Amino acid sequence: MRVDVFSIFPEYFGGPLGASLLGRARELGLVDVRVHDPRDWTTDRHRSVDDTPFGGGAGMVMAPEPVFAAVEAVEPARPLLLLSPAGERFVQDRARGLAAGPGFSLVCGRYEGVDQRVADHLCDGELSVGDYVLAGGEVAALVVIEAAARLVPGVLGNEQSSGEESFGGTESFGQTDLLEYPQYTRPAEFRGWAVPDVLRSGDHERIARWRRAQALRRTRERRPELLARDLTADEQALLDEFPD
Ligand SMILES: C[S@@+](CC[C@H](N)C(=O)[O-])C[C@H]1O[C@@H](n2cnc3c(N)ncnc32)[C@H](O)[C@@H]1O
User: Fold this and answer.
1) Fewer C-beta neighbours within 10 Å, C or N terminus of the chain?
2) In this structure, are 219 and 118 located in the same domain?
3) Ligand 1 within 6 A of CB of 129
4) Which CATH number goes with the domain that contains 17?
5) What angle do CA 40, 41, 47 make, to 5 degrees?
6) CATH number for 217
């Protein structure tokens, strides 16, 4: 999977792209991330990438010319997505879609944002990583890249582990949009808090039922909008079998 990133702060990416899962994915050649600085396509002495907003107001706006010039020179992987709080909310399903394709590209805004003509005439869409405002698109880009890269076949050591997690969506887990069940590891008792007995029972069918009950309960309590339907009779029976 190829990812092109356009950012006026390319130094943001060195650490995260070299570490842990992303570092390994790049080393294995499964993910190829290239960062391009629109400043390299400026033509003035000061290498300016921003200007004051038409209509007045605080702050500066990223100008269209350097971003257009950079994108047109690089011919990045498509879709090309502008990171913006006003974009479509980035969710796991979108990460799956990006991971399934040959690549994608991201434009990172700074200042008060990016001249609208970049979104309207250069990019294929806009993505938001959540309802809050970051100082720039770099952290948002890393969120999108990491979420997509870990779903590229071969990147995770155990292929199963992306199917059984929150929003995992495999048949074994039963539903696409549940939060994951609680996880425990050794010690079996820590400061007086014991791991649920069922997980130490060795009864794999019962463990699977307990996990599904926990996932249903958590989702219903914490993110009811993900489970906007009545429980099936089987699901209700699971909750009755494991009341807490
Ligand atoms: C300070 S923000 C601009 C915020 C803009 N004035 C607004 O009110 O929507 C600068 C840049 O950070 C990035 N950014 C900030 N929050 C983001 C979010 N939640 N999702 C994606 N990108 C974000 C965008 O690229 C944006 O152009």
Assistant:
1) C
2) no
3) yes
4) 3.40.1280.10
5) 70
6) 1.10.1270.20
CB 53 within 8 A of CB 96: no
Asked if residue 66 lies in contact with residue 50, where contact means CB atoms within 8 angstroms, the answer is no
pLDDT of residue 160: 53
Residue 223 lies in a domain: yes
Is residue 30 located within the same domain as residue 68?
yes
Q: Please count the structural domains in the chain.
A: 2
pLDDT at 168: 73
Say if residue 106 is in the same domain as residue 182: no
**Residue 51 bridge partners (DSSP):** 61
pTM: 0.93
How many alpha carbons lie under 13 Å from residue 140 in its C-beta half-sphere? 31
Number of other residues whose CB lies within 10 A of the CB of residue 84: 22
CB of 128 closer than 6 angstroms to any ligand 1 atom: yes
Looking at residue 114, the DSSP 8-state letter turns out to be B
CA of 32 relative to ligand 1 center, distance in Å: 25
Is 49 a member of any domain?
yes
- Look up the domain containing 93 and give its range: 2-149
Most distant CA atoms of the chain, gap in Å: 71
**Residue that has been written with the tokens 């991201």 in this structure:** 106
Q: What is the mean pLDDT of each run of 10 residues along the chain (244 residues)?
A: 98 95 96 98 97 97 98 98 98 96 98 98 98 98 97 81 69 65 97 98 97 96 92 96 92
How far apart are the CA of 82 and the centre of ligand 1, in A?
10
* 8 A C-beta contact, residue 128 and residue 84: yes
Strand partners, 189: 194
Is 228's C-beta closer than 6 angstroms to any atom of ligand 1?
no
